[in-house]
Each structure stands twice: as C-alpha cells, then as structure tokens.
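Notes to self after the call with IL:
- keep both proteins in one doc
- input above output, always
- annotate only the second one for now

Protein 1:
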Amino acid sequence: HKMMDTMNEPSKFGKKFNEQQTRFYRETIYEILKNLREKWQQLDFLASQPQNHWENDKDMDYSVFSLLDIHLWMVHNDDFVKDTGYFEHIHAPKSDRFWAQTYRNMKQKWEINKQAYEVWLDKKISGMVSVARKWSIPIGNTEGWGAIYWMDHPALEWDIIKEAGEIGARLGAAHGYSFNCTSN
C-alpha cells in the first residue's frame, strides 16, 4: 500500500487504481504467487480480492492462482448504500452517534429492494464464475455477504446481514462455489 500510494499520478479516471498502480499490484501478486507455488508445489495459493475492485481485475492473468476467493458484500451495491450513511458512519466511524439512523435507512432500502439486490448479486457471482471457468480454477467466497464492519451494537440489528448471508450462500452454491461463507 505504501508503494502504491507513491504512484498516485496520473489520476485514476473513476477507477480504484491508475494504470501504474494496477500494473504494480498485478506484478506483485504474480511474483509472490509464482514464488510460493515454486517453493511449495503441493499447496494451493491465491490472493483474496474484494469485489469492489473486481471490475478492474476480472481481466487479470489468473494462471498463478490455485483458486479465486472474491469477497462480495451487498454493500458493494451502490444503490443499497447510497444516502444511507453506511460508508460515512459504520464503515469508517468517527462515532456511533448516527448508527441507528444509518441502520434504519439501510433497512428501509433493503425491504423495498431486496429482490433487485438479489438479482444484482446473482449477476456479480455469474460474472466471477465465468472468469474462474476461463482459467479452470475453483471459486468461492470466504468473506461476505451483507456488510463489512458490522458488529454487535444496540443501534444495529442483524436481520439484513442474516438475510444477505442466506441469499449469498444459496447463490454461491447454485453457481457451483467450491467454498462458501454465510457471513463475516
């Protein structure tokens, strides 16, 4: 991360990383995984990737990966978290003062749009599975499905997280995931 922070020019044009950062990230992953596989040929190796970077990484060369572990959460759906305060108050909290309202906002959107979010998740998983098939490697998810940084707190309930976990685990299984989580 420190090296990538020194590569902040040219600007990113709406992407997580610019071309120089992307190249460095990919070369570093390739080199590490290649060296590990050469040293311990009997073991499988991968680099877990969050889905919010996936659009930039789905064209990577995954030949050195033994499998794909793409972390995918419902909060990666921009519509779900837009105007809820999730990223401002729960994901990067300065205090817990706004958590109750943030949760109410998320709950309201979830109840109205749950089916659309499930369709969105199904399409995301389908796209990731097609990349795994291209490289003939297993795919799964060890971190997902509802929200990142959710915790026990009087202002936060678990119903959205549980429902998202049930949906994600079911969709992962339907798409042939080799390993699957129910939630973080």
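Protein 2 (the one to annotate):
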Amino acid sequence: FMVVFSTVISYLLAPNIRFDLLQVLLLFAGGMLVTGSANAVNQLLEKDTDAMMQRTAKRPVASGRMSVNEAWVFAGITGTAGILIMYSFSAEAAWLSLASLILYGFIYTPLKKINSIAVLVGAIPGALPCLIGWVASFGEGNDNSWTGGWIMFAIQFLWQFPHFWAIAWIAHKDYSKAGFKLLPSDKGPTRFTAVQSVMYSALMIPIGILPYMYHISGITSMWIVLGCNLFMLYASVM
C-alpha cells in the first residue's frame, strides 16, 4: 500500500497534473497489481524459507493456503493487468513497472541468499514507484522532464537502507536461520551496520531539500522533510 501511495503522490507532484479521482484510482489499481505480482513471485521463490521464519510463516504459499500453481497464475494475471494499466498512462511507466517487477521478483529475491548487495539491488525497485508515478504524468501538453522523478527516486532509494537494515537488525536471528545475508557486516548487528545507516540517513538531508529547489514542493514541506530527516539521523546514531 505504501509503495503504491508513493507512486500516486509522485504522479500528483508532476507539473500540469490536476487531481482527477478516476485517474488516481486507476493508477492506484495499476500499482497494486504490479506490486502484488512482484510480492507473489517473491513469496513463491521463498516459500520454504518463509515457512521457517516467524515473521513470514503465515504467508499464503508458505502456510499452504495457496498452491504454487495458483500463485503463479495470480502473479501472471496481476502483473500483466498492472503493466497494461500503466501503459494507458505512458509507455515509460509501463516499461519501468516491468523492470521493477523483474528486478524485485527475479533478481533481488534470489540474491538475498548470496550476498548483502541484495539490499542495494532491492532498493532500486523499491524506489522506482516514485519515478513510475512521475513519468505516468507524461502526456500531450505535459512536461516530459525526468528530473523531478529522479529526485523522488533518490529520496526513497536512500531511505530504504536505514529502513531495511533496522528490520534486518531486529530479525537477524530469523534471517540467519533462513540463510539470508542482508546486513552489511558478516558478523551481524555491529557498529559497522550502524555507521552505514548513519551515512545514508545523513545523505537524505541534502537530497530532501531538492524538491524545494526544483519547485516540486513548497517551503513548508521542505522544513517538515528536513525535520523528519534530522530525526531519522538521530535515530540511526542512537
């Protein structure tokens, strides 16, 4: 839900876009379908390890409530329908949605058991919804500059590192039992991981000012975002 929310917000922040409830609902539906497909592929490929972890054991395929074949059909239908809806907005949005689905489902997911660089790879499809929402606004008479979309992408991209490492820190035992390598340190929750989180949180401070500088958002938003970023930096330091 939050991934799709970031798509819709980025769409509405784009120049020359006026709020149209039907268009917003259509974009929301397309985003939910693509995200649902990506999550289904993730849960299909990780059904055995999901069953081993308390946090994920109740997922449909892992718990046996849904068969593997049913899940593949679900992933195929939702993915296709979502990309077609995105294409009704713009070809760019459709291609980026397909790239995001492939990156998350078929590259990031298996990479989690190989190397912690999976977090870097996973942060790309995690941030692409912002860019997808922005380019979904591309149409006749609209500004086709990608700059604003890349700024929104950068904010969500950097945010994911301290966000995800916080989860991996707390669930380290569960993840290790399942064979996932998600923390930057091989030794688990160490100061090295904490320093990495501080670095990415600090980078978010200047990046968070860019929407104001490029006239995407106003001065009030800039101060709110700056305050949130400073608090996140404080939390990472602590």
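Annotation: The chain has a mean pLDDT of 89. The chain is about 75% helix and 0% strand.
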